Amino acid sequence: MHSAVREILGRQAGRNVRAYLVALGLQVALVNALTAAGWLLVTAPPIAPVSALVGGLVFGVGMVLAKG
Amino acid sequence: MGGLVTIAALARGVGGVLVGSRADLPAALPALLGIPTSVVVVAVVALIGVGLLRLPHARPDARLWSPEATGLALGITGLLAWITGAASGWHWGLSMTGPSRSLVAALLGWSPDALTWGSWMLIGVPLGTWASARAAGPLSWRVPAWTDLGRRLAGGALMGIGGTLAAGCNIGNALTGLSILSLHSAVASAAIITGAGLALATPGILRAVLGLVMAREGA
């Protein structure tokens, strides 16, 4: 994720962005298909906008720090 | 002591405002748009497909897996997490933050029954990483330089705090939560990318945050 953001900022979406998109697309398609078939139980948690925003920002900065 | 009590009270107050869930708002994209889930799923997958087609291809690198193979492996791992987790009552795919918390709680004896499917999965992560690195060639332990160690510790602490507040890290939100079209995960993922982007674009922010964290730890 850290590397993917680096790629986006460098305006050259490379291998990490591609890998992430493939993984996400696959999961969106298959998890929802299995849910529709009744194999999985899926409930989206209620949204907590402020904590998602603040927590996400703090996490993002931390991610860059931790990976150097 | 009085200071500690004040800080704890302040943290509870701030936490109360921050953590407030809005059950009155739609939780997932289909509910927000008023469109059936199947239609939204097809549209999202199509958008991702178009994005993949339009993105420039990465230069092949013999030492690395192709991005497609990596994404396929990660996507299948995530799917397996949903399927195997469901069998033990874990109805949320891959995730790191929640399992980290429950694992620590279990190890400290606060709640031994907190060893969820996620906690066991988390224990497997370093083992799997080691095994795959081992399979790729000889490996050795590396210790980062002292200055780098402080930076990594501070970053890890921020990831723990941020991940707990946002109810998930980049895996739990940007991969698992987005796969079920959760709006909470969409906001959190956008914020994570923005935070990382800000930190990368302005090294000054990093120094300021690091200075602040170090000062706190020293105090």
What does this structure look like?
The complex is a heterodimer of chains A (68) and B (219). Chain A is mostly helical and 68 residues long. Chain A contains three helices and no strands. The mean pLDDT of chain A is 88. Chain B is mainly alpha-helical and 219 residues long. The radius of gyration of chain B is 20 Å and the shape is globular.
Properties at a glance:
heterodimer; A: mainly alpha; 3 helices; 72% helix; 0% strand; B: mainly alpha; 10 helices
Residues in helix, % of chain A: over 70%
Radius of gyration of chain A: 16 Å
Q: Helix share of residues of chain B? A: over 70%
The SSE string of chain B, one letter per element, is: HHHHHHHHHH
Number of helices of chain A: 3
Structural class of chain B: mainly alpha
The average pLDDT score of chain A comes to 88
Number of β-strand runs of chain A: 0
Brief characterization of the structure:
With 68 residues, chain A is mostly helical. Chain A contains three helices and no strands. The two termini of chain A are 13 Å apart.
List the helices and strands and how they pair.
The complex is a heterodimer of chains A (68) and B (219).
Chain A: H1 2-9, H2 15-36, H3 49-67
Helix pairs in contact in A: 1-2
Chain B: H1 2-19, H2 29-33, H3 37-54, H4 67-87, H5 97-107, H6 117-136, H7 146-165, H8 170-179, H9 183-201, H10 203-218
Helix pairs in contact in B: 5-6, 8-9, 9-10
